[in-house]
Amino acid sequence: MKLLVTGGAGYVGSVAAAVLLEHGHDVTIIDNFSTGNREAVPADARLIEGDVSDIVEEVLSEGGFEGVVHFAARSLVGESVEKPNEYWHDNVVTALTLLDAMRAHGVNNLVFSSTAATYGEPDVVPITEDMPTQPTNAYGATKLSIDYAITSYAAAFGLAATSLRYFNVAGAYGNIGENREVETHLIPLVLQVATGHREKIFMFGDDWPTPDGTAVRDYIHILDLAKAHVLALESNEAGKHRIFNLGSGDGYSVKQVVEMCREVTGHPIPAEVAPRRAGDPATLIASSEKAKQELGWTPEHTDLRTIVEDAWAFTSALGDRSHAAKKKA
């Protein structure tokens, strides 16, 4: 298929683009590089630089596109609380512009990058797709709003669509990994201590109702996540909007993650307990049974050691490249 991937220079988007290319698809990427990295763009992909809302109409007017994978979005929870206006505009308005451009040019196949933040703070885990959606921040609210829009477009206009609600994405795929200017995810933050870019890691609360007192999260390997997008694109049906949770189905605590990073890196990684953060649930684990049964998706890299080893290989190589560049300069 000839595909458009928005946000294809980001962490998830670039890996998904690479996997789509490996499956024989023709990939065009739109990215404005507000958070993405040029070096993450797969060499075989066509790159168009700019904002999706500004250029998607022109790009799709070329014709021949058979599907879209929409990653481009703002995605920092804390920032979304401080700047909700930017999130509503950049996430929702952009998505509506994309949906209308797709409709205008007869592109009827969509996979949307959604989030577990649509569920808010669930009372029961593991989280299934039929549980209440009660986002607690603008980021989750914008993603949920887009899900509603997609549902209505599918019903009214025959759009074939799937929304994939991610839990904690981690790991790396070859030379593509997490490399953001503002990092908020636990595993790369811990690994920054091992590389000397951070003095210590903070554990927010050690008195949670969990086996070791620290919060528990579900981690999904980036390659498993990317493969789900391929399956979704290749199985979408006109008039249907499917929603799937993507996670490993297992949970690891903050202490377990820190300890595994110590083992993998050989670094002591100092850790300090800090007060709980408001709004943090004790445990977030996904049920991915629906994706397994209906999408035929099976995560293969669920072991925490594998996830951390892949992330560390990327982080170490990134540090080596940075050092070599500075030495050359």
Characterization of this structure:
With 329 residues, the protein is α/β, with parallel strands linked by helices. Mean pLDDT is 93; it is low at 322-329. Strands 3-2-1-4-5-6-11 form a 7-stranded parallel beta sheet, sandwiched between helices. A 3-stranded mixed beta sheet has the order 12-9-14. It has helices at 11-22, 52-60, 77-82, 84-104, 138-157, 186-194, 222-235, 254-265, 289-295, 304-328; strands at 2-6, 26-31, 46-49, 67-70, 109-115, 160-166, 168-170, 201-204, 216-217, 219-221, 241-246, 252-253, 271-274, 283-284. Helix 5 links the parallel strand 5 (109-115) and strand 6 (160-166). The longest helix is centred in the C-terminal third of the chain and has 25 residues, at 304-328. It contains 10 helices and 14 strands.
